[in-house]
Amino acid sequence: MRPNVFIAGFPRCASTYLFNILKQHPDISVSKVKEPNYFNWKYIFFGYPNYRSPFRKNKFSEYLSLFKDEPVRIDSSILASYDHECAQRIYERLGDVKIIFLVRNKETHKQSLYKIMLHNGDIPLISYNTFLKNYQRLINFYTDFEQHIEVFKNQFSHVKKFNLIDRDTKKEIKKILRFLKVPDYKFNYDVDMNSSSKDPPATLLHRIKRRILVKFPFLAKSQWE
Predict the structure, then answer these.
(1) DSSP3 helix / strand / coil % (the chain, rounded to 5)
(2) Which residue of 109, 162, 178, 212 sits 20 to 30 Å from the alpha carbon of 118, by its own alpha carbon?
(3) Where is mean pLDDT largest: 143-147, 188-192, 202-206?
(4) 225 Cβ partners below 8 Å, 6+ apart?
(5) What would the pLDDT profile of 120-155 be if each residue is shown by its tens digit?
């Protein structure tokens, strides 16, 4: 029941869309929780607060229970890429699994980061130009895909990157199926691209909560509970 495929990155690169596509395939099992982040021990303040909860306290057997016994079992913890020690943890527990990275044009990725971080309350209400100026180091960290991919290439034998946004999406998905060595499938492509952007904008209380959880991640509850 151990995952044999890991989608290690990146956020804002159509990972939700891919998750909703691949879970339709009869030979593929995706985790019951979209992003378990079991191996991600750093609390990157991107995404929902629960992504920062200390999942390492969960039992490994509980983590494995998130997957069904299909030929391909996928963990889609896309924030794993930003914790460079995560690659070794995955290797030690799961072995030499296949690693998938989703990437996109870096400029549009920056714009998407700005919108979702503003929406979720990770940054104050500022303009995009101010965001680029004040958060340059953070932006470079998130959008410098290659530095994060290289860490996983040094650990795993099978690492591939795909671009569902800037290239032909259906062709890229077919490439992913070939990488996974599963037969083609007639997918329903009319699925959610990103559920987080549909959530209501962050309230003042929500913003305060997120800032607190950034500094004190142990206060977050596990989303497995």
Answers:
(1) 45, 10, 45
(2) 162
(3) 143-147
(4) none
(5) 777 888 999 999 999 898 889 889 999 999 999 999
Check pLDDT > 70 for residue 79.
Answer: yes
Q: Mean per-residue pLDDT for 167-177?
A: 97
Q: How far apart (Å, rounded) are the C-alpha atoms in residues 59 and 128?
A: 42
**How far, in Å, CA of 202 to CA of 209, rounded?**
10
- CA–CA distance, 156 with 3 (Å, rounded to integer): 14
Tell the residue number behind the tokens 């299909």, with chain if given: 70
Instruction: Determine the Cα–Cα distance for residues 36 and 38; give it in Å rounded to an integer.
Output: 5
Query: 167 CB contacts (<8 Å, ≥6 apart)?
Result: none
Structure confidence at residue 121 (pLDDT): 78
Question: What whole-number distance in Å separates Cα of residue 20 and Cα of residue 126?
Answer: 32
b (16+ CB within 10 A) / e for 29-40:
bbbebbbbbbbb
CATH of domain 5-219: 3.40.50.300
Comparing 7-21, 43-57, 69-83, the range with the smallest average pLDDT is: 43-57
Tell me the average pLDDT of the chain. Answer: 85
Specify the pairing of strand 159-162 against strand 28-30.
unpaired
d(CA 132, CA 127): 9
Query: Which of 166-175, 184-193, 203-212 is predicted with the least confidence, judged by mean pLDDT?
Result: 203-212
DSSP state of 73: E
Contact status, residue 187 vs residue 21, Cβ threshold 8 Å: yes
| Dihedral pair phi/psi, residue 151, rounded to 5° | -60, -40
Q: Helix or strand or coil: residue 5?
A: strand
